[in-house]
Specification:
flat, 5 helices, mainly alpha
Length: about 130
């Protein structure tokens, strides 16, 4: 009897966990689809406007490139907002370690910063975490 109750509870918990996973996955896919639809709508709207008003090829290309560039910038801004949200919930030491590991490869491309890291690792960590 005890084993049967355990099996029933296990199956119910598994079903709930699976339903939760499917729900999350569906939400993520829906959000991605909305983002893509917005991007396509913006490009299509710009293209249609340019064609309807017989805008010159050079100006049309400039407008299209700007629309695409703006979409990339907005995506990066959204990504940075997610990063800031993550960093705010982390304790200071963990946040600094994460920023140091994330940003140091970029900074260490210059020989001056390699020397800073070798001479004073604390200074280098503060540079990566507080200045960038």
């Amino acid at each position: 009897a005890g084993e049967r109750a355990f099996a029933v509870c296990h199956v119910l918990c598994s079903v709930v966990a699976l339903a939760s996973l499917v729900s999350k996955l569906t939400t993520v896919l829906h959000n991605m689809q909305e983002i893509k639809a917005t991007k396509v709508r913006q490009v299509t709207s710009a293209r249609r406007y340019l064609e309807d008003h017989a805008i010159s090829t050079d100006l049309s290309m400039s407008v299209r490139k700007y629309v695409e560039w703006k979409q990339v910038v907005d995506a990066k801004r959204h990504h940075n907002a997610d990063e800031n949200e993550l960093l705010q919930i982390l304790p200071r030491d963990l946040r600094r370690a994460l920023l140091d590991e994330t940003r140091s490869p970029l900074v260490l491309k210059h020989v001056t910063f390699v020397a800073f890291r070798n001479c004073n690792s604390r200074f280098f960590q503060r540079l990566c975490c507080d200045s960038l």
